[in-house]
Here is the input.
Amino acid sequence: MKAPNHLYYSESHEWIKVEGGVGIVGISDYAQDSLGEVVYLDLPEEGQPVTKGLQFGAIESVKAASDLNAPVTGVISEVNPDIDRTPELINEDPYANWIIKIEIEDESELESLMNAESYLAFCENAA
Amino acid sequence: MKNYDTLIFDLSVKGRRGYTLPKSSYKDVVLPKKLLRPAKPELPEVGELGVLRHFTNMSFKNYGIETNMYPLGSCTMKYNPKVHQELAALPAFSSVHPYQKDKDTQGLLKMVHGLQGFLSSIAGMAEFTLNSFAGAHGELVGLMVMKKYHEDQGNTQKTNVLVPDAAHGTNPASAILAGFNVVEIASNLDGTVDMDDFYSKLDDHTAGIMLTNPNTIGVFERNILEISKAIHDVGGLLYYDGANLNPLLGMARPGDMGFDIMHINLHKTFSTPHGGGGPGAGPVGVAKHLAKYLPAPRIKKEGDHYAIDWTLAGKLGQISPFYGNFGVYVKAYAFILTYGKDHLSEISKMAVLNANYVKESLKDVYELPSKALCKHEFVFNGLKDKSTHVTTLDVAKRLLDFGFHPPTIYFPLLYKESLMIEPVETESKQTIDVFIGVLRTIAEEALTMPDFVKAAPHTTIVRRLDEALAARRPILTYDQFKALDSLA
Here is the structure.
């Protein structure tokens, strides 16, 4: 299972990467593997505010439907148009295929998220 | 003809007809152009015998309780005695009109009133309404009662309903539709409420909690009295989802556990058609202090006279045009009378015995996370030996080769490889033994020829389907099908 070093991870299995005040958000390899083949994403609109820990969308696989939770508070600046049409991209590479971008309100919120090492340990415990 | 797979469109021959229409007597009537379709619909042109054979052959592919066992967990799929269908079809029941006067339908009203009484005494609730059309409808009505109660009490701060993460999906949906926020509470490995998490989320905003008991894992909620006290201490209400009532009949009553509101799925527990076989019924029961909120109409008994009371004052209003699905009540009423008060508990005892028998007979080859005595159902976490990578999906697909409908899989989400089995009380030991034997054979095959199991089913008309592709690019019409064909 992969968890790249330069990302932050949430307990609900989203990752976030920060580039110039903008957070790029997707789901982890562990999440896509547990879900199985992704068939549908319920995605938000651009401009929608999101709150850390609260739902911004949903993801469905052949096995289950799960909430997508925002790892930080802010406003959605972009939604990945590719995954709407081809949700299987999430299974192919969950780190290359991001879901939304967030204009982060307060970057200090990132400190409460996990780094790759503690996230992998967290998944180990969950298994 | 079990392998019949012809589409009716493939039988179509241009110009063939199975009917003739009389000449129109409305020749002069010209419909406005905007109401006419631009091209004729592409309907299959097949003669009567062709249509008859087509649908008869299709019907051989049906799988139902009348062909073999249906071991779905989470949905009680028992046999419904045919005599109850016949009773419901009697002209005195089937020809009655809802606008008939009360004085002409006294016997029917007496029966409906009697069924309400039966359900109240079986469940330990003060009153029942038969207005709702299905379990989910009943849940919504129950939650609307909860909402109205809190509004009347001035409890504007009570906005949250607690729902365990292992609950049936309808629970959070009903709470949201009734205008509440859903707060999820964690479950233990055996599906019981995680009491620490429960207390951490219980506060003045809690309007109520929704529980099934026994829970989705088939385990009785041992802390139910403590949960009941705690929820009532903050002024909240306890909601019972009757989906799992089957193992409690004549043994224990939700009302005695402190539940304030509940629904019963008549189609699960009381012998009425299930799912697409509907119509359904989801009667709602309440404790005494909530009876005034039940929706209109209500059946009233004054002396020996029964009447339909349409008064709306104080009530939720109306949630069905008349009084629910009457034919369903006849079947449930007959079912309860057939067993009688002293023998209803036989249903529960047999359902629990059968479930534990299957569980104990297979736990050496399938992983059993909860070792507790189960009630009517239980959940395996896939095969015990996971080294072969044969999954629950593979086991379910292989079951098709042996002629069994697979149990519920990948629900609840508590385990990664959930295989949820409910054998119900109406299956004989012989049938159950065959089912156990097949699951043991599959476990054996998983070790000796895992690739064969992973490629199952082998004997069905279609082999392993690409479920992800079907969900991503569904082909729902013949036109879409043809377009796909021309691409290939």
Q: What stands out?
A: The helical segments of chain A are 29-35, 81-85, 89-92, 116-126.
